[in-house]
DNA sequence: GAGAAATTGTCGTGTACGGTAACAATCACC
DNA sequence: GGTGATTGTTACCGTACACGACAATTTCTC
């Protein structure tokens, strides 16, 4: 295993390169919906359970409370989420999706599918299954919760 | 192919997640050498041909001239590269590695190898070959030059 | 129950970074 | 030999993140 392999033959480099590339492309595809991939991740998370506090959401996504404030400001201004009074804790907000969000989310998911399809062009279905399975096994070992992106910052791509 | 798959079952998401994760880990491994992955990429490129101008290097790596100024400032201050007078063009600089860089580079490469080994733990050699081959085929189609990271910014991770 | 400590959401403040424009020095063209 | 283009650099600006601080409210403790 020679140490001076070129970068293009290193699995970790290729992962970083491809991951950055596909994230940037996805960011572009999402742009005219008025949201970033970080908003998409939050919407996806909300679609699996509403009414949680900002703090709970921030912990689930592995980001700081303050960042959640900004994300929810964006979503609220965009008419995709709303802060309601929390029934049990008057300090906290309970976060809910709007109908507009439930309309937009399938569209955003379709764009994610389109990006994936674009990326995987050239691989047959058996190879796609192989790749997905291998990546899932690697992802298990990273320690990141499933479906939580470690780079949930404001501008993941571009 | 259902549209509302969870993120953990999407190849593009997994690539982005794993790519970000391994880049962040690599950044940490490189930290006590005093360089960032972007510096590493530039050093790797320089090791395959010295004496080029900053402009040529910037184009090869797909970044703006100004960013190259900053990267070379860092490398020069760190004693890893030097700007010499260009023999044919007195506006330009010819960029060379120092002996310190030639000593440091194998160390940095070994850290990249260690990060890769860490990432791929749990995959046997056949699976590693499969994964590498599939990723290389995907990388071909992205349009990025081989071994050039599209996210060559100052702080790729963390 | 009353005060102390912790929690929730928010707001400044400072700092660092990327991108645009501008600049002096030099080259290339014709 | 003079005009336009190119190289490397600096200045500027807008943005975004990290840290700390803050009021309102809850929970703990006695």
From TrEMBL, chains A, B:
Sequence ranges assigned to domain HTH marR-type in this UniProt record: 1-140
One MF term in the entry's GO annotations: DNA-binding transcription factor activity
SMART domains (UniProt xref): HTH_MARR (SM00347)
Alphabetized Pfam families for the sequence: MarR_2 (PF12802)
Domain of life: Bacteria
GO biological process, one term: response to stress
Gene3D superfamilies for the chain: Winged helix-like DNA-binding domain superfamily/Winged helix DNA-binding domain
InterPro entries the record matches: HTH_MarR-typ (IPR000835), MarR/SlyA-like (IPR039422), WH-like_DNA-bd_sf (IPR036388), WH_DNA-bd_sf (IPR036390)
Full protein name: MarR family transcriptional regulator
Organism: Catellatospora methionotrophica
């Amino acid at each position: 295993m020679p140490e001076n392999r070129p970068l293009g033959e290193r699995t970790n480099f290729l992962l970083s390169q491809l991951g950055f590339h596909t994230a940037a492309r996805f960011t572009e595809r999402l742009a005219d919906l008025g949201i970033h991939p970080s908003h998409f991740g939050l919407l996806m998370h909300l679609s699996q359970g509403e009414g949680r506090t900002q703090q709970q959401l921030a912990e689930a996504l592995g980001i700081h409370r303050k960042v959640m404030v900004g994300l929810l400001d964006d979503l609220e201004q965009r008419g995709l989420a709303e802060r309601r009074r929390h029934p049990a804790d008057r300090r906290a907000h309970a976060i809910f999706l709007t109908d507009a969000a439930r309309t937009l989310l399938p569209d955003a998911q379709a764009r994610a599918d389109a990006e994936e399809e674009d990326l995987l062009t050239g691989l047959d279905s058996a190879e796609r299954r192989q790749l997905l399975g291998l990546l899932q096994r690697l992802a298990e070992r990273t320690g990141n919760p499933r479906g939580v992106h470690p780079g949930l910052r404001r501008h993941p791509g571009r």
